[in-house]
């Protein structure tokens, strides 16, 4: 399987399990896709956290605490960085 696909699946699993609004793990497909795209665009946890916060706020008209978004962004970037080490 392609390394990018593997990375995206790992990111998707983490984001599905996050479930910030407690609506069920299969409820966030659009937001997860947007967040995965953002992970590929950002290397800075703060910038990624702000983007994640905006993605979910746009969909749900409710803001997730930036600290919570920062926590998930660190985890997402760790997966991304681990994956990039495997690619070399």
From TrEMBL:
Upper classification of the source organism reads: Bacteria, Bacillati, Bacillota, Bacilli, Bacillales
Species of provenance? Oikeobacillus pervagus
Query: What protein does this entry describe?
Result: DUF1871 family protein
Protein origin, superkingdom: Bacteria
Q: Which Gene3D superfamilies match?
A: Apc36109-like domain
Q: What InterPro entries does UniProt report for this protein, alphabetically? A: Apc36109-like_dom_sf, DUF1871
